[in-house]
Protein 1
Amino acid sequence: MALRGLLQLSLVFRSAASVTLRRNIGISAVLFNKAKDLDPVQKLFLDKIREYTVKSKTSGGVVDAGPSYQKNMTEEINKLQRLYGGGDLTKFPDFKFQEPKLEEVAK
């Protein structure tokens, strides 16, 4: 009887300890990855992303867009305005639906 109780207690303790260890290992792995130096390829990738972010914020749009890009963009916008009846293509359309008039049918 005492042996069975001890066995059940050890099973509960083992499952609780395993959950705690898994959580601690998961958290420490994340902290360890932040603390150590990055892989050179990862570091280069992150540096390029940060550089692109800074460039896009300063330019206010597409990075390294030349006059040919602007020309193609205006041509495409003009083509779309001709196809779809004009309007501001940079703004989401404002939809207005009217309620249908329903007639009551006598039974």
Protein 2
Amino acid sequence: MNDLVFGAINGLAGESPALDAVMRFAAGPLIYVLFVVGAAVTVLAMRGRNRVENLWLAGQVAAALALGFAINRVLRWMDLSQRPFQTRPVHQLMAHAPGTSLPSNHATAALTVVLVVGLFASAAWGLALAVPALLIAVSRVFVGVHWPADILVGGLVGLVAVFVVRWGAGKLRERYANSSDSSDDQSPPGKGPDQDATVVLPRVS
């Protein structure tokens, strides 16, 4: 099935110079455009939030990307799949070094950006960025450097990374809030700022 889908998509390469040019751009520089637009949307969303919220947001973005690429590194170390051009005839439109192809870092990064923007900044922009992210994913197969399975696994890694980080961040905030409430409840009794602090001296006769 993997080979069949690859053949259907990659078989379109070389049929149209215009389509080839679009797919080369999508398979290469478009990921950087996606990052820039995603970062711009996220920064604009930060303007309406306080410093603590922005720190949580930036931390989750960095953690999701780091976790996704860490998982990819482990999977690539397992050497589960070679590049298509190493195992079969392909229409290769982009030069690429041979090696392990599963999972696709491009697919992981693209889906992570889409989910981060959609969940933390703007749902509308998240949906809009899903279009170029999908184009990036398909183009990596079109130009002959990835199998469809590489794309699916890469996207799944991005999905898992974002939701694990989001879940973990929620647990941390919940624990922090509970510990703050507990410390307030356990503080020694004393006069608060609204209580009468007048000292009554004994009367000397």
Protein 3
Amino acid sequence: MTTGRIELGPTGRTVAANVKRLRGERGLTLRALAAALKEVGRPLSADALNKIENGAPDTEPGKSGEPKPVRRVDVDDLMALAVVLQVPVITLLLPASVRGFVELTGVGEIRGRIAWRWAQGRVPLEWPEEADQEERRKLLAMYLMAATPDGIGWDQTTQEGQRAAVEVFKGWAEEEGGERGPSVD
């Protein structure tokens, strides 16, 4: 059984463009980046990195013809690239600017600012159309809890997170008939 070539989606193309951009900003050659990846236990050859970067859209006018060989980035590659390039993983996954619209795999086009806030764990990607303000507060509180690992607590660094927490805790206290919130018994 033969399989066809798997095309890169919008996020794969964004990762390719970001690897190429960040490598250039840091003054790294493909070989230097390959050596740094080997040092952190994720060896990728300069050729493999070149194939990853080939997934970036051509910026030179008139470039066409034979498709360049492309290599997809798996999650372990992604993590190692972020470590070596000294950026959060989302910096590789999302376009470098929040201006305008961006295309996300599984979503389509969305405002860049919303995409970044969602990826930072600050707001859900979208709200149910029928959700009123109170329902949105509850949804935001649940989202913030889900976006934060155990042991840290949810994101209180944003005004949205602070307001959502206050409102949800008030609601829990009222539901329990007291001021201390839900019972843990």
